[in-house]
Design a protein that fits this description.
The structure is a homodimer of 505-residue chains. The first copy, chain A, folds into 3 domains: 57 residues, no CATH class; 148 residues, Alpha-Beta Complex (Aspartate Aminotransferase, domain 1); 238 residues, Type I PLP-dependent aspartate aminotransferase-like (Major domain) (Aspartate Aminotransferase, domain 2, 3-Layer(aba) Sandwich). Chain A is 44% helix and 11% strand. The radius of gyration of chain A is 28 Å and the shape is globular. The first copy, chain A, contains 18 helices and 13 strands. Chain A is of the alpha/beta class and 505 residues long. Chains A and B meet through helix 3, helix 5, helix 6, helix 8 and helix 9 of A and helix 3, helix 5, helix 6, helix 8 and helix 9 of B.
């Protein structure tokens, strides 16, 4: 219409409307055809060459003339797609890209980029391999000794997970939390990873324009997992180094009130426990306070506990579910995110968990689960694995020892470099203070050091600014993708950059 | 605030604001505690019993009094969750529920509900079983004869699918389309089923409040898959029995203009080919017209081709991709939905495909794919299966013969009952005309017959109204979950209801 209307003023008189509508369309179409033919050299790409049409199909090359409006460019994509379609310039993703393009290998690519930005645990893959090698020998389909049935693998199954796997996952969660809580399988919704678990839960708890409060520094993936498609915003509530980055209810209160003043509806507070990226735990008292806060504000509480079983320190992990067992709170506002990617080291299996005490959320999430179902053969394999309690006990125990050892080695090595880490208890990372090495003392200085570490030292770590940390100079360093032999390499590479960086300024 | 403000008027004078705010909050909190203690008998559920707190954790039972606002009920869930949380009264879902609760089995539950509402193909599961049984014997992990590696199974892999599986799926798509098209693996995004494929694509093409045009009758799942979370609306463009429910561009044009008048932005037209629920195909000329239409309106064209390989008639299936190979259109507005659930009968594996000619959409969809990734062990299994070209050729050939046979038997049996079906070519269903059996001739009459078939005859079929068919009395009957022996049972049960239904009125 935009094309046609101005021309109606040019073609006046009787028939002006018709001519004013049809003529420009026809002209425009012919012009388009001309330009296309001119620009394309491929013999198969001419729209008007009737001889190339499949035999027997009459084509009227003039059919486009019937269109009341011609196209004026590429069809627009959605604004949510447009905002993610381009390459990301966030350090978190830039670092990943570098690692993908030039991955370090001690033998085959010793000058490649070392990945300390990805929270993946490769310390215990050998245990998984041994178990899988054994089980593969015994798998058999139907028949007399069959332990699998084709209809149990290939046909439609409940989208929110097999009940057998829900039961097995509930048991595993309880196991990694050392029996301090028991989980009810009917409160579990399984999704294809913790990423869709948090997104699905978000879809359930808030509408576009609403917001969640998130103590910062927080996991950079939350911005992506929650904000991209749900239309929900995240509001950081900044924690500080003077408190060891521990959660403080007064900070939450302040962030809540500021949001309210801006007219934003806060629907939930989202915490990670163990904290990602800091690695410290929420103690019982803080959990009580969080529940009080959620109650007082009439909002939800989401506890991301994906590292609950990846504890390397001596402090006790307390699940929000454990607190609810002993205290009388409104449970319907409490939801836990879990998954097998961290504690069982199987991110490739894509198993996430929504554990909710809210029946309406469970009902909606079980329906939304059709958008992120776990492939059934993998579910069956995991049912077998988790049912093997001897293996699971051995795995959890050994994995913990390896985590402890690597954490101690890595933090010690950083210390020798002059880098201190916050004393942490869980997770695959440490939260390292490099503020004394940055000039200027600002996000700019932090990102300059990060860029040198990535491009010169070829070490990918996550800068605090990607985690919405308000103090510059902090970095998340994941150590579970490293071998012990890699640690001196990391330290040596870091040292050169840190020394040069300091000399330079 | 709603609680506080009215009471400020009651507590007048100096200090009225403070007393009016704090007093009701405190009173309300104490009342809540009292009611909770009264209602709960469990000794572990008292909020004020300090003796039950874990040792060493000081708790102030009065801390809640510090809250500036107390909770006034359950925390609200999102409107999108609330709208799906309750049970659905749509016949499409009511029928599923009945089948789940009381499934027919010829031996163990001969009076159970027969499932003709679910488009799942169980005709060739034996072929899958045999292949899986063979492959399971040969699977081995690492080692000398290993064909699997643990890091290739357990660790993070690209969220939008393994490149090996993209290549295999591209080959399979070409195979089931009899080599008429070749597909480029780099245009493929893999998702955990066709359901997240269509949702992800929708997220990419339109924003909340925008709409897609969909020729009706259409697959009832579209309303769920597209509307639930994206905020996009679907506008039916009604096709009619006088045209054999074939797509008509004039109808699309009308629906488009009406939407425009109402101020709605139409972003795409969505077709299924073969049509679901009718089963007829879009011929080449209609595909050209659709492309013209999309071009003229500057909108996208989505072609759902999940049944492309499930052709049981003699007409030739033409993919929109085939037309694009020979014609010069703006490809960037064309997107295909595919999956392995129908043509390979593995819905439990959850493999969906977005095939797009638009680089921006591919880029955004590959990022959104993290919300619906396919579990990697299942991907590896499918890579093996699809690479076995001897098996795939045999499977596709035999499955087609079985489909043809069942379609002919079932449609013939319906005919003997006096029920005619639209002549169809693809899909797992037929589109049956029972309009002469309904009284009144309206949606009400249709749903009365549907309810009797479900509750009396215990046969679940999908009424046309669930598919937005504007003519009453049409039903989608899936025949691929039946065995040949089931057909006489279905017909006998239907006959009793149809005869009684007629006599009754």
């Amino acid at each position: 219409m935009r094309l046609v209307v101005p021309l109606q003023g040019v073609v006046q008189g009787r028939g002006g409307l018709v001519l004013g509508s049809l003529l420009p369309c026809a002209l425009f179409y012919v012009l388009q055809l001309y330009l296309k033919r001119k620009n394309r050299s491929s013999p198969s790409s001419s729209a008007t060459s009737v001889s190339e049409l499949p035999a027997g199909i009459p084509r009227t090359p003039s059919r486009g003339l019937l269109s009341s409006k011609t196209s004026t460019g590429p069809a627009p994509i959605s604004s949510r797609a447009a905002s993610v379609a381009g390459p990301s310039d966030s350090p978190y993703y830039v670092g990943f890209k570098k690692c993908r393009e030039d991955p370090y290998h001690p033998a085959s690519n010793p000058n490649g980029v070392m990945q300390l930005g990805l929270a993946e645990n490769q310390l215990s893959l050998d245990l998984l391999r041994d178990w899988l090698a054994e089980i593969l020998k015994d798998l058999a389909l139907d028949g007399e000794e069959g332990n699998l049935s084709v209809s149990g693998l290939a046909t439609y199954q409940p989208f929110d997970g097999l009940i057998e796997l829900k039961m097995a996952v509930a048991g595993f969660m309880s196991h990694v939390m050392q029996g301090s809580v028991s989980f009810n399988p009917s409160r579990i919704i399984l999704t294809a990873g913790a990423t869709p678990a948090i997104e699905t839960l978000s879809f359930c708890l808030a509408d576009p324009g609403d917001a969640f409060l998130v103590p910062s520094p927080y996991y950079p993936g939350f911005d992506r997992d929650i904000k991209w498609r749900t239309g929900i915003d995240l509001i950081p509530a900044p924690c500080r180094s003077t408190d060891n980055f521990s959660l403080n209810i007064a900070t939450l209160e302040r962030a809540y009130n500021q949001a309210k003043k801006r007219g934003i509806k806060v629907r939930a507070v989202l915490v990670s426990n163990p904290s990602n990226p800091v690695g410290n735990l929420l103690n019982r008292e803080t959990l009580y306070d969080l529940l009080d806060f959620a109650m007082a504000k009439n909002i939800h509480l989401i506890s991301d506990e994906v590292y609950a079983g990846s504890i390397h320190g001596n402090e006790e992990f307390v699940s929000i579910a454990e607190v609810l067992q002993t205290q009388d709170f409104d449970r319907s506002r409490v939801h836990i995110i879990y998954g097998l990617s961290k504690d069982l080291s199987v991110p490739g299996f894509r198993v996430g968990v929504i554990y909710s005490f809210n029946e309406h959320v469970l009902s909606a999430a079980s329906k939304f689960a059709r958008f992120s179902s776990i492939s059934v053969p993998s579910q069956r394999l995991l049912v077998s694995m988790l049912a093997d309690s001897k293996f699971i006990t051995r795995y959890v125990g050994q994995n913990k020892k390896r985590l402890q050892k690597m954490y101690a080695l890595f933090v010690d090595a950083l210390k020798q470099l002059g880098v201190d880490c916050v004393k942490s208890t869980g997770g695959f990372y440490c939260w390292a203070d490099m503020s004394k090495f940055i000039r200027p003392y600002s996000e700019k200085g932090e990102l300059e050091l990060w860029a040198k570490l990535l491009n010169v030292a070829k070490i990918n770590i996550t800068p605090g600014s990607s985690c919405h940390c308000i103090e510059p100079g902090w970095f998340r360093c994941c150590f579970t993708t490293l071998s012990e032999d890699d640690i001196p390499v990391v330290i040596e590479r870091m040292m050169i950059v840190i020394n040069n960086h300091n000399d330079y300024h």
